[in-house]
Specification:
By secondary structure, this protein is mainly alpha-helical. The protein has four helices and three strands; from the N terminus they run αβααββα. The chain has a single domain, classed as Orthogonal Bundle (Arc Repressor Mutant, subunit A). Helix content is 53%, strand content 9%. The protein starts with 14 loop residues before the first helix and ends with a helix. The relative contact order is 0.18.
Length: 116
C-alpha cells in the first residue's frame, strides 16, 4: 500500500470531492446513488453531472480517499457494470480535516459579521 500524503496538502478539497465524501459517509454506494444523495442532501441546490462525478471519483481513488468495493449484502443488484465505492480511513481523516477547516471559516465569518 502506498503511503498517504499529509492530510493538509489535500486541503482545501474541491466542492465535488467534499460532497462525495459526505454522501458516502460510512456506507458503500454506486455512482448514481452518490449523485442522488448529493442532490437530496442539498435540497437540489447541488447536482453533480456524471462527467464531474466519475472524473472526481477517479481522482479520489488515485489519492486513496475512496476504494472500490463489493455491493453491500443487502443490495440485490444483477448489474455487473455497477461499481460501488466507500470512503477509506484516510478519506475519513481528510473529510474531518476539511470539516474543521470550513467550521473555522464559518466562525471567522460570523465574528466579522457580528462586528459589522
Amino acid at each position: 500500500m502506498r503511503k498517504h500524503p499529509p492530510v493538509d496538502t489535500l486541503l482545501p478539497l474541491s466542492a465535488p470531492m467534499f460532497h462525495i465524501l459526505i454522501a458516502l459517509g460510512d456506507e458503500a454506494m454506486h455512482g448514481y446513488a452518490v449523485m442522488q444523495s448529493i442532490a437530496e442532501r442539498s435540497g437540489g441546490q447541488v447536482r453533480l453531472l456524471p462527467g464531474t462525478l466519475y472524473s472526481t471519483i477517479k481522482k479520489m481513488l488515485a489519492l486513496q480517499l475512496l476504494e472500490e468495493c463489493d455491493a453491500p449484502a443487502e443490495v440485490d443488484s444483477d448489474d455487473e457494470r455497477r461499481r460501488y465505492y466507500r470512503v477509506t480511513r484516510f478519506g475519513r481523516e481528510v473529510r474531518g480535516a476539511e470539516t474543521e477547516r470550513l467550521s473555522m471559516l464559518v466562525r471567522i465569518a460570523r465574528g466579522a459579521n457580528a462586528r459589522a
